[in-house]
Amino acid sequence: MLNTNSNILVKAEVLKKYMHEKNLSEKEFADAIGVAHSTVNRILNGKRNPGSKFIAGVLNNFSELTFDNIFSYDNSLPKGNEKEVC
Q1: Taking the model in full, what pTM does it have?
Q2: DSSP 8-class letter at 64
């Protein structure tokens, strides 16, 4: 079961390298996975975390990409919750 405090992050440099090797623009990649170009741009630039549609689109349309090599987990606490409770 996925910890609800976890964020799924994209390994942007890995995905950018893959897109470059496959000669895919951000727009072409977005079209292939069924999301807006702006979504891909924001995720690759660290302004947004990938959602379920992005993750499913990547995994369903690019069989050579695996979850573990494109995504990671961030288990840090939300801002303001990092203090230890006494």
Answers
A1: 0.79
A2: T
